[in-house]
Amino acid sequence: MFKLALRNVLRHKTRTGMTLLAIISGVIGLILSGGFVQDIFTQLGEVLIHSQSGHLQVARAGYFDRGARSPEKFLLDEPEPIRTTIKNVEGVEDVMGRIFFAGLLNNGRSDQPIIGEGVEADREAKFSSGMHLSAGRMLEDKDEHGMMLGHGLAQALKLKPGDWATLVINTADGALNSIEFQVVGVFQTFSKDYDARAVRIPLAAGQELLATPGVNTLVVALGATEDTLAVAAALDSALGKSGLEVRTWLDLNDFYTKTVKMYDGQFGVLRFIILLMVLLSVINSVNMSVFERVGEFGTMMALGNRTSRVFALIVTENAIIGLTGALLGVLLGILLAWIISAIGIPMPPPPNADLGYVAHIQVVGLVVVQAFFVGLVATVLAALLPASRVRRIPVVDALRQNI
Q1: What is the pLDDT of residue 400?
Q2: Which of 125, 144, 194, 207 has its CA 20 to 30 A from that of 350?
Q3: Shared-domain flag, residues 124 and 42
Q4: Is there a single domain that holds both residue 43 and residue 114?
Q5: Cα–Cα distance between 338 and 150 in angstroms, integer?
Q6: Are 44 and 259 in contact (CB under 8 A)?
């Protein structure tokens, strides 16, 4: 059966080639589109991790739900023992303390409301690869009264590196406190809204402003983003009984999860369209082939072959074409993905962002497997209807096609 089917496939070179082209195009389209979408997910996730949230954050229970309004009520007064416990978990590279505050930034002429973070400057500078500097430099531990501003905030207050501005906030006890800071850098992230309000100062200066030795969160940096859930589970087990809670970067970035859902839905529609395209192309090709070969099938049945054997022959032929097309599509798709990734795809800034980026095509194992089976299954399914029609043609009518 297989040998006869293979000979028939090779005998009809033009029609086989047209069918293969449709299958290969569909498989390549799935691999490239799936890899492109996955690259968007990866790049967006890494930028959010390395500019804002870190891989994980540890804080007092209730902080992530209610701490935005009153961060002073959720301070970790003795963070060092907790930091040591976290560092001992496998996969953790660094742990950074942050203290959060809200207040006003005054440039001597006007005020702007801000959200601020006191950070361990040298550690954050190493970790914040997703933060793009539009002016100046990164904050350093030696900058006692240095300050970094988001791009939108710097523009609104007309501040640049070297300028001085005053931070005014309420301390944990409710008293008003203010310190003058010098701008050392202006940064941009993936979030335009964040850049329009964000201020970063050294952790010691933030603690001085709030008159507290504590921190709000301990930000955890991992060696690999893929370890996030495993490390989160380990930290939950180690810290859960201490009145602390652990949140992953996925929990902290609602925008990311919504973006993933949107693109997943779009990719699902694209996969369905490609499947439909392959099905229609193959059905058309198979129908034409079967119609022209009705006399041949009639001869086979007249010589004693059962209709079930003819049915199986047609399906086997298309399975061979589908398998060949899917394999070629996978190989060409992976090759094209590597070539395109080496060149890069310049992309405009996404919604709510000012920064463009260079996209690539990732070779994702699951997408490649799905594309392969879409090409193979679509081809086999397309053969079922024409093959079933041949089974119902009387032998006499089929033989007339030879006249």
Answers
A1: 67
A2: 125
A3: no
A4: no
A5: 36
A6: yes
